[in-house]
Design a protein that fits this description.
Layout: H1 12-16, H2 28-40, H3 54-62, H4 75-86, E1 104-108, H5 118-122, E2 128-129, E3 137-138, H6 149-152, E4 158-162, H7 175-213, H8 237-246, H9 251-264
Antiparallel strand pairs: 1-4, 2-3
Helix pairs in contact: 2-3, 2-4, 8-9
């Protein structure tokens, strides 16, 4: 299926959170098949297939969990390539995933950009540059036309413009461009993992410092009526009487303790 219209960008919900890959047990044969499928995908990382990125889509195809018709950027030629690898019958690109069309580039309206950096965070290949509260720009040579930056922009200052004329699918995209896009996406994935690890380490260190600087809580006061030893390590009959006055039920135990401790005290030597 081919057309000249620019493919619609993903929804805001799909741009914010990619679907998680379902857990599966990989085998060597399945892993090799997934690598071959991934190499045949255009690596736009657009998520229109319904997966987090091209690699996860390839793994789902290899596991028999996804059809080979869910990649509009690859188009009809892409489906034929996947059919040749998997042995499945070619079929038209799934309408639910969008239509095959010319490759588009993201263009930011500088007059409306507020420098929120949300498009930078959404870009799967790090082709948008800029800083907070400063105008952003797209590196055209690195843009895959995924469109994920469009729904991420809160002021709608990004448009997707077709740049390949009537050429669509793999006719509008080369293997060299796909390889470069895959490398940038992998670099971004590693960077985000490293940043997440560093953030976790900082939080743990801050928690440890806060715990070390917090003074130990004061011991809880003794309940009312508790016996107070007259001297350290000794409990006398006077203490027993004090305990009995405060709580008669403890009188027997307190008196017994006092008598026992008095018997343990050394007797003075008899004087000559």
């Amino acid at each position: 299926m081919q057309g000249a219209a620019t493919p619609p960008p993903p929804s805001r919900a799909s741009a914010r959170a990619a679907p998680a890959a379902s857990p599966r047990r990989e085998t060597p044969d399945r892993d090799r098949l997934a690598q071959r499928i991934d190499a045949a995908l255009p690596q736009t990382q657009c998520r229109r297939c319904g997966y987090a990125d091209c690699r996860h889509y390839a793994q789902a195809i290899a596991a028999g969990e996804a059809d080979i018709d869910r990649c509009p950027p690859g188009g009809a030629e892409g489906v034929r390539r996947l059919a040749a690898i998997t042995g499945r019958a070619p079929r038209p690109v799934a309408v639910a995933c969008g239509a095959e069309g010319p490759r588009a580039l993201a263009v930011i309206d500088e007059a409306w950009c507020i420098g929120c950096t949300l498009c930078i965070q959404a870009c799967p290949v790090d082709c948008i540059v800029g800083t907070s509260k400063a105008m952003h720009t797209v590196i055209d040579a690195q843009c895959t036309g995924c469109g994920l930056c469009v729904p991420a922009c809160p002021v709608d200052c990004i448009q997707m413009r077709a740049v390949t004329g009537a050429h669509t699918g793999w006719a509008a995209w080369s293997a060299a461009q796909a390889g470069a896009a895959r490398a940038r996406h992998e670099q971004r994935r590693r960077r985000l993992e490293r940043q997440a690890h560093e953030d976790d380490e900082r939080l743990r260190a801050a928690g440890a410092r806060a715990a070390a600087s917090t003074p130990a809580p004061a011991p809880a006061p003794a309940p009312a009526g508790s016996p107070t030893p007259s001297t350290a390590g000794a409990f006398t009959r006077a203490d027993a009487r004090q305990a009995a006055a405060a709580d008669p039920r403890r009188a027997t135990v307190a008196a017994a303790l006092a008598r026992a401790r008095e018997r343990l005290q050394p007797r003075p030597a008899d004087e000559d």
